[in-house]
Design a protein that fits this description.
6 strands; single chain; alpha+beta; 3-stranded mixed β-sheet; hypothetical protein PF0899 fold; binds zinc ion
């Protein structure tokens, strides 16, 4: 399952960066571009399954932020939002130069302070 391996990667990264404090992490936010092939619901399910199996993480929350796809138009020299997989700028120029939408990363970590 693709999503479970992503969740395992997220925890591996957190464990590496936060070491002993990893259990104090309250909330993790990940940013996933629409082209990254990540289904927020499936990621959430995989996350819930993971923390159920790993009791020390059972209080952790996950939020998935979905990022629009942006492509660059060389005619207008600006970025435009790609909707319904139409990689065409409002001026009519097609573009496959993706400037946003492929990413998948941990964008925020909230650690309990008390
Ligand atoms: Zn344009």
């Amino acid at each position: 399952m693709h999503e479970l391996s992503i969740v395992k990667d997220i925890f591996a990264t957190l464990e590496e960066h936060y070491k002993a404090k990893v259990e104090d992490i309250q909330k993790v936010e990940i940013t996933a571009g629409l082209l990254s092939n990540v289904q927020p619901v499936l990621i959430q399910n995989a996350f819930d399954a993971f923390i159920t199996e790993h009791q020390m993480y059972k209080h952790m929350e996950l939020e998935v932020v979905v990022q629009d796809i942006l492509a660059h138009c060389t005619s207008c020299n600006r970025d435009f939002k790609v909707e319904y997989h139409r990689f065409v700028c409002s001026c009519g120029t097609p573009s496959t130069t993706i400037v946003q939408g492929n990413e998948l990363y941990i964008s925020k970590v909230i650690v309990r302070t008390t």
